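User: Here's a chain of 433 residues. Predict its fold as tokens.
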Amino acid sequence: MKYLRQLYIQVILGVVLGIVVGYFFPSLSGMGKMIGECYINLIKMLIAPLIFFTITAGIAGTGNLKKAGRIGGKALIYFEIISTIALLLGIVVANFVKPGMGVPQDAADAANAIQKVSKEINWGDFFLHMIPSNVVDSFAKGDILQVLVFSVLFGIALSKLGPTGKSITHNFEKINKVLFSILGMITVLSPIAAFGGMLSTVGGKNGFAMLYVLGKFMMTFYLTAAFFIFVVLGLVMSYYRLNLFKLLRYIKEEILIVFGSSSSESVLPNIMSKLEHAGCSPTVVGLVIPTGYSFNLDGTTIYLGMSVLFISQAMGLDLSIMQQLTVVGILLLTSKGAGGITGSGLIILKSSLDSMKFIPEAAQAQYLPLLIGIDRLMSLGRALTNVIGNTVACVVIAKNENLIDSKKYKEVVENNKIVVLANPPSSFEFEQE
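Assistant: Prediction complete.
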């Protein structure tokens, strides 16, 4: 019975029960849809405040960026390049495999109307819309792009205020913990939401066809994430004459912890301590790892890109090249607000869809609840890819800056010397150089 206390087991049971009830009692599909919409509304409730406090605290927390100098600039450039590659990879694979195809469609008129609306969007309007004229109104309407712009400016301003800014940042971090605690409460309801989503799907017109589509989508994501880790990150490591597989063996305990918790943040202190023990400079570790948890979420980025195309394909909407470029531009911004906590990927996905305008609320209400049933499994893949991507980033940047003890790294990582960890760092301080 102890296994029933595990959330992912409860979600699986909710999925199975939703399928069974939907099959035998299709008339209850309307109730399932209502349950799914209620859950999505709970998620929407947190979007604006969670992203504001996460982004602001993250940027303000890099107030030591000047002290790190060139390292910080290289880290941010590396994050942007690698996360862009991850995003493009996810979108290209989704275009090729089309994981959202296969759902019966009888709403061609609705799709045409959506296509007409989307053509009215242009880049000029997009960039003009990003600048809020009334930030209170932006929060009230949940306009995530405007909230992002204000968050970045607020975070930069806080980083320049010295001790006062640090004090406010600490308070923001505490508020962020409260918000994530609320998210945890909502996540407890995910088995019910999974039940509702599957009940609505199987009991509705799509029947079991959507189950096949969801399985295809999940398999596509995992294969893409594996390709990114072993090919893209593997090539980056090889360029610096480093072995990816030996590094993965070195952090195997942390990988197992992430596997069990579906959260990359659960191993943040351990990863920092291990990388320092392996010879990476504390300055590089203290800057790259915490910053990477906000700006280098490769697994989450792959998931977001594929999810947008999955939903558009499921609803029969063929996105144009310009629309997909809009998806890339928006996700490069909104993905920076995703944390390493289970469930945050769904929040960022919802906020991104709202910003894109060409995926209507009706389609989101229909297809987002379906992703809840597999979100725990998807979250596992996202978290594993995120933690591996940030570990590789730290080692590569340390190597590039000659701030790594190559002899020690070879002994500890390459030759698999036994590691005895010191106490994990309690704060992310930089060494004086």
